[in-house]
Amino acid sequence: MNSMQSMDRDIDHILVSEEQLQDKVAALGEQISRDYQGRDLLLVSILKGSVVFMADLMRAIKIPCGIDFMVVSSYGGANTESTGLVKIVKDLDADLTGKDVLIVEDILDTGITLSHLLPVLRMRNPNSVRLCTILSKPSRRKADIEPDYLGFEVPDEFVVGYGLDFDEKYRNLPYVGVLKPEIYSK
Ligand code: XMP
Ligand code: MG
């Protein structure tokens, strides 16, 4: 497969390996299974970045749970339901009444998006709303929000892989890495 283009060669360095991700997801799944035993758990994935983490995490959770998906955006755009500073581009299908909602995210950066989304979900009468994120950039935080379940802290670098993209590419990398600078300036 000489002509096959490899994504790996665009990566400057790996921050979190595939094995580290697998081990962490298994541990998070065990902990969530214990914590939510006997509860009406609903996993809420914020598209698109969290789709890889969601697919792995849901299989690491050993208790019954539902899944749902949401698309949000921080800024304008037509045909969206405005809720303060967060726009719901695609809302949940599920009724949250009495549910124990666990938001599944790819990365908590400034925290601004989720700090606006959480009150919106809490208004829908769930039993609880908590946050599980595979990555966090604590040095970038602006809003008063921290994950209830966390995979890895990463430095203030733009990261790709395991769902995270640059220009919609690299989401399918099985690890988290930092792109070579020349990829940005192309
Ligand atoms: P907040 O509101 O926490 O937004 O600032 C978090 C969202 O920003 C995106 N984000 C990234 N996406 N590599 C990415 O591919 C990154 O390093 C990165 N940092 C933040 C991401 O969509 C996240 O949900
Ligand atoms: Mg995202």
UniProtKB/TrEMBL annotation:
Q: Which cofactor does it need?
A: Mg(2+)
Listed EC numbers:
2.4.2.8
* Entry's localization field: Cytoplasm
Q: Which segments constitute the Phosphoribosyltransferase domain?
A: 19-166
- Tell me a GO cellular component: cytosol
Alphabetized, the UniProt keywords read: Cytoplasm, Glycosyltransferase, Magnesium, Metal-binding, Nucleotide-binding, Purine salvage, Transferase
UniProt pathway annotation: Purine metabolism; IMP biosynthesis via salvage pathway; IMP from hypoxanthine: step 1/1; Purine metabolism; GMP biosynthesis via salvage pathway; GMP from guanine: step 1/1
In the record, biological process GO terms are: GMP salvage; guanine salvage; hypoxanthine metabolic process; IMP salvage; purine ribonucleoside salvage
For the protein in the UniProt heading, the enzyme class is transferase
Q: Which reaction does it catalyse?
A: GMP + diphosphate = guanine + 5-phospho-alpha-D-ribose 1-diphosphate; IMP + diphosphate = hypoxanthine + 5-phospho-alpha-D-ribose 1-diphosphate
Q: Which domain of life is it from?
A: Bacteria
A single Gene Ontology molecular function, please? nucleotide binding
Q: What is its main location?
A: cytoplasm
The record's InterPro entries line, in alphabetical order, gives: HGPRT, Hxn_phspho_trans, PRTase-like, PRTase_dom
Its function, per the record, reads:
Purine salvage pathway enzyme that catalyzes the transfer of the ribosyl-5-phosphate group from 5-phospho-alpha-D-ribose 1-diphosphate (PRPP) to the N9 position of the 6-oxopurines hypoxanthine and guanine to form the corresponding ribonucleotides IMP (inosine 5'-monophosphate) and GMP (guanosine 5'-monophosphate), with the release of PPi.
Q: In which family does this protein belong, per the annotation?
A: Belongs to the purine/pyrimidine phosphoribosyltransferase family.
What PANTHER family would the database entry show?
HYPOXANTHINE PHOSPHORIBOSYLTRANSFERASE, HYPOXANTHINE-GUANINE PHOSPHORIBOSYLTRANSFERASE
Give the protein name, as stated in the record.
Hypoxanthine phosphoribosyltransferase
What is the protein's species of origin? Subdoligranulum variabile DSM 15176
Q: State the gene name recorded for this protein.
A: hpt
